[in-house]
Amino acid sequence: MTALDIVKEYYTHFNNKNWKGMLDLLHEEIRHEPNQGDPRIGIEKFTEFMQMMDTSYEETLTDMVFFSETGNTRVAVEFTVNGIYKKGEEGFPEAQGQTYVLPAAAFLEVKEGKISRVTTYYNLPLWISLVS
Protein backbone atom coordinates (compact mmCIF):
# COMPACT_ATOMS: atom_id res chain seq x y z
CA MET A 1 0.00 0.00 0.00
CA THR A 2 1.15 3.53 -0.69
CA ALA A 3 1.30 6.23 1.95
CA LEU A 4 -1.72 7.81 0.28
CA ASP A 5 -3.69 4.53 0.51
CA ILE A 6 -2.83 4.18 4.21
CA VAL A 7 -3.87 7.76 5.01
CA LYS A 8 -7.13 7.44 3.06
CA GLU A 9 -7.92 4.24 4.98
CA TYR A 10 -7.11 6.03 8.27
CA TYR A 11 -9.64 8.77 7.51
CA THR A 12 -12.24 6.26 6.32
CA HIS A 13 -11.90 4.60 9.73
CA PHE A 14 -12.24 8.03 11.37
CA ASN A 15 -15.51 8.77 9.59
CA ASN A 16 -16.79 5.25 10.40
CA LYS A 17 -15.77 5.69 14.05
CA ASN A 18 -13.62 2.57 13.75
CA TRP A 19 -11.09 3.57 16.40
CA LYS A 20 -9.37 0.17 16.38
CA GLY A 21 -8.92 0.40 12.61
CA MET A 22 -7.31 3.82 13.03
CA LEU A 23 -5.00 2.63 15.78
CA ASP A 24 -3.95 -0.41 13.75
CA LEU A 25 -2.58 1.95 11.08
CA LEU A 26 -0.39 3.88 13.54
CA HIS A 27 3.29 3.32 14.19
CA GLU A 28 4.05 2.33 17.80
CA GLU A 29 5.95 5.61 18.27
CA ILE A 30 3.34 7.82 16.58
CA ARG A 31 4.04 11.55 16.99
CA HIS A 32 0.80 13.50 17.26
CA GLU A 33 1.28 17.24 16.89
CA PRO A 34 -2.00 18.94 17.82
CA ASN A 35 -3.07 22.43 16.81
CA GLN A 36 -2.33 23.58 20.37
CA GLY A 37 -0.25 22.03 23.10
CA ASP A 38 2.65 19.66 23.32
CA PRO A 39 3.16 16.73 20.96
CA ARG A 40 2.01 13.31 22.13
CA ILE A 41 4.44 10.48 21.51
CA GLY A 42 3.40 6.83 21.40
CA ILE A 43 0.29 4.79 20.75
CA GLU A 44 -0.85 4.96 24.40
CA LYS A 45 -0.92 8.78 24.44
CA PHE A 46 -2.69 8.85 21.07
CA THR A 47 -5.28 6.36 22.33
CA GLU A 48 -5.97 8.57 25.37
CA PHE A 49 -6.41 11.56 23.05
CA MET A 50 -8.84 9.64 20.83
CA GLN A 51 -10.90 8.58 23.87
CA MET A 52 -11.15 12.20 25.05
CA MET A 53 -12.15 13.34 21.56
CA ASP A 54 -14.81 10.63 21.30
CA THR A 55 -16.26 11.71 24.65
CA SER A 56 -16.29 15.44 23.88
CA TYR A 57 -16.95 15.64 20.13
CA GLU A 58 -18.94 13.93 17.39
CA GLU A 59 -17.12 14.69 14.14
CA THR A 60 -17.31 13.71 10.48
CA LEU A 61 -14.88 14.94 7.85
CA THR A 62 -16.11 15.99 4.40
CA ASP A 63 -14.74 17.71 1.30
CA MET A 64 -11.49 15.78 1.71
CA VAL A 65 -8.68 16.55 -0.73
CA PHE A 66 -5.47 14.51 -0.47
CA PHE A 67 -2.01 15.53 -1.63
CA SER A 68 1.01 13.21 -1.69
CA GLU A 69 4.63 13.57 -2.62
CA THR A 70 6.65 11.30 -4.86
CA GLY A 71 8.75 9.83 -2.03
CA ASN A 72 5.71 7.89 -0.77
CA THR A 73 6.17 9.02 2.84
CA ARG A 74 4.16 12.23 3.29
CA VAL A 75 0.51 13.04 2.70
CA ALA A 76 -1.43 16.25 3.30
CA VAL A 77 -5.20 16.43 3.50
CA GLU A 78 -7.56 19.39 3.54
CA PHE A 79 -11.08 18.83 4.88
CA THR A 80 -14.15 20.28 6.55
CA VAL A 81 -14.92 19.20 10.11
CA ASN A 82 -18.66 18.81 10.75
CA GLY A 83 -19.06 18.47 14.47
CA ILE A 84 -21.16 18.43 17.60
CA TYR A 85 -19.64 19.68 20.85
CA LYS A 86 -20.87 17.08 23.37
CA LYS A 87 -18.82 17.61 26.53
CA GLY A 88 -16.90 20.72 27.53
CA GLU A 89 -13.19 20.85 28.14
CA GLU A 90 -11.38 23.03 30.65
CA GLY A 91 -10.65 26.48 29.21
CA PHE A 92 -13.26 26.16 26.45
CA PRO A 93 -16.94 27.21 26.28
CA GLU A 94 -19.54 25.02 27.95
CA ALA A 95 -20.80 22.23 25.71
CA GLN A 96 -24.51 22.14 24.98
CA GLY A 97 -24.61 20.08 21.81
CA GLN A 98 -23.54 23.00 19.62
CA THR A 99 -22.86 22.15 16.00
CA TYR A 100 -19.96 23.55 14.01
CA VAL A 101 -18.46 23.44 10.52
CA LEU A 102 -14.75 24.21 10.45
CA PRO A 103 -12.04 24.08 7.76
CA ALA A 104 -8.93 22.13 8.77
CA ALA A 105 -5.87 20.35 7.42
CA ALA A 106 -3.49 17.61 8.47
CA PHE A 107 -0.02 16.49 7.49
CA LEU A 108 0.90 12.84 7.92
CA GLU A 109 4.09 10.86 7.57
CA VAL A 110 4.25 7.12 6.90
CA LYS A 111 7.18 4.94 7.97
CA GLU A 112 7.45 1.15 7.65
CA GLY A 113 3.87 0.99 6.37
CA LYS A 114 2.43 2.78 9.43
CA ILE A 115 1.50 6.40 10.12
CA SER A 116 4.32 7.81 12.21
CA ARG A 117 3.23 11.47 12.44
CA VAL A 118 -0.08 13.35 12.40
CA THR A 119 0.01 17.16 12.54
CA THR A 120 -3.37 18.93 12.57
CA TYR A 121 -4.20 22.60 11.95
CA TYR A 122 -7.44 24.56 12.33
CA ASN A 123 -8.50 28.03 13.44
CA LEU A 124 -9.14 27.70 17.19
CA PRO A 125 -10.58 31.24 17.64
CA LEU A 126 -13.05 30.49 14.83
CA TRP A 127 -14.08 27.20 16.49
CA ILE A 128 -14.58 29.00 19.83
CA SER A 129 -16.78 31.60 18.15
CA LEU A 130 -18.83 28.84 16.48
CA VAL A 131 -19.59 27.06 19.79
CA SER A 132 -19.97 30.18 21.99
How would you portray this structure in words?
The chain has 132 residues and is an alpha+beta fold. The protein has one domain: Roll (Nuclear Transport Factor 2, Chain: A), CATH 3.10.450.50. The chain has 4 helices and 6 strands. The protein is globular. The termini are far apart.
Explain the layout of strands and helices:
Elements: H1 3-15, H2 19-24, E1 26-33, E2 40-41, H3 43-56, E3 57-68, E4 74-85, E5 98-111, E6 114-122, H4 124-131
Parallel strand pairs: 1-6
Antiparallel strand pairs: 1-2, 3-4, 4-5, 5-6
Describe what is shown at a glance:
The chain is α+β, with helices and mostly antiparallel strands and 132 residues long. Helices cover 31% and strands 43% of the residues.
Helical proportion, percent range: 25-40%
Q: How would you describe the shape? A: globular
> N-to-C SSE series?
HHEEHEEEEH
Mean pLDDT: 97
Low-confidence stretches: none
Helix count? 4
- Strand-residue proportion: 35-45%
Key words describing this protein structure:
132 residues, alpha+beta, Nuclear Transport Factor 2, Chain: A, six-stranded mixed β-sheet, 4 helices, globular
